[in-house]
Design goal:
Blueprint: E1 3-8, H1 12-22, E2 27-31, H2 34-37, E3 45-49, H3 55-58, E4 67-70, H4 80-85, E5 89-91, H5 98-113, H6 116-124, H7 131-134, E6 144-148, H8 152-163, E7 167-171, H9 178-184, E8 186-188, H10 191-197, E9 200-203, H11 217-221, E10 228-231, H12 240-248, E11 254-257, E12 277-279, H13 288-306, H14 319-322
Helix pairs in contact: 1-13, 5-8
Length: 326
């Protein structure tokens, strides 16, 4: 019986689905921490949530290892080259969490533009005065939203903000087909032009060597003084120190981050002292009603391999390294 290793901490509903789908068919090894994972290196299939898997760990995996599957779409914590060189497929839940992430991105835009935390605080204090907050609040309607990345999540954000009356422009290293641009009602622009022209900039791309600190001090300097920067992708895409400096100096309107470098950052981090920055604890991809979709997608890929088939090709992120094995 092949072994499924479930590494990291999971929403209970999702974990129960994984256990149920494995019952009687696979041996299970649950490893909540990286330390416990060291005791489960003899698996065939690995499911990772919040647990890194570098080359040092991959080198120790059993020759039986066939699949490393991320719970989510980020794979920067997995050495995909080392896995590929060992013939191990690395997969993500392509498109499965796009709706919850897109919804949180729009929520962060609205919460920032309307200063939701401050309004909630005023109400809790029994205060009615809000004119000063109204004087610095804005509508998404009529604004230009610039998307950096037009994948599954970016496209859903485009539809949502257009429904609120925004204009949408985008940059992606792989430009969408003309019919897709027409269907979504979006305009392609070069990266610097998106940064210069947009009122709201929302990041929707993976963290790779080429996107590390893509939003640098120089790129932040291109933004409008009234610009809002939203990141529901990966913290490392932004040069955090450069962003915090710009926010402290009020050179842009604000930022809203579901992910930040070094997360979770400590409670005394200077970021929490800024009144023009919202931070949430990397919660975008998970909702109770989406857990079942994530778990089912992963188990479908595992079952496909187990039954002699192939994983969903859209989910594979290290195909270029796997090809070297053939």
């Amino acid at each position: 019986m092949n072994k499924v290793v479930i590494a990291g901490r999971y929403p209970e509903a999702g974990l129960e689905i994984l256990r149920s789908r494995c019952a009687g068919r696979y041996e299970i090894c649950e490893a909540e921490t990286a330390e416990k994972l060291q005791n489960c290196l003899d698996g065939t299939y690995y499911i990772l949530r919040g647990t890194p898997m570098g080359a040092d760990i991959i080198e120790k995996l059993s020759p039986r290892a066939r699949l490393i599957h991320r719970w989510g779409v980020g794979y920067d914590a997995v050495d995909i080259k080392a896995a590929g060189e060992k013939g191990i497929i690395v997969s993500i839940c392509a498109g499965v969490n796009s709706q919850p992430v897109a919804e949180l991105a729009v929520l962060l835009m609205l919460a920032s533009y309307r200063h939701l935390p401050q309004l909630l605080k005023r109400a809790a204090e029994g205060r009615k005065d809000k004119e000063d907050i109204i004087g610095r609040s804005w509508l998404i309607s009529g604004k230009k939203v610039g998307l950096i990345g037009l994948g599954n999540i970016g496209r859903r954000v485009a539809k949502a903000v257009k429904g609120l009356g925004a204009e949408v422009v985008y940059y992606d290293p792989f430009r969408a087909a003309p019919e897709t641009e027409k269907e979504l009602g979006v305009q392609y622009m070069q990266l610097d032009e998106v940064l210069k022209d947009s009122d709201i900039i929302s990041l929707h791309l993976p963290l790779t060597d080429s996107t590390k600190h893509l939003i640098s001090a120089e790129k932040i300097a291109l933004m409008k003084p009234a610009a809002l920067l939203v990141n529901t992708a990966r913290g490392g895409i932004i040069d955090t120190q450069a962003l915090l400096k710009a926010l402290q100096e009020k050179r842009i309107f604000g930022a809203a981050l579901d992910t930040i470098e070094g997360e979770p950052i400590p409670a005394d981090h200077p970021a929490f002292k800024l009144d023009n920055l919202l931070i949430t604890p990397h919660a975008g991809g998970n909702t109770e009603d989406n857990n079942s979709h994530m778990a089912a997608y992963i188990m479908d890929n595992i079952d496909a391999l187990e039954n002699g088939g192939q994983v969903n090709p859209r989910s594979v992120v290290n195909g270029q390294y796997l090809k070297l094995q053939h």
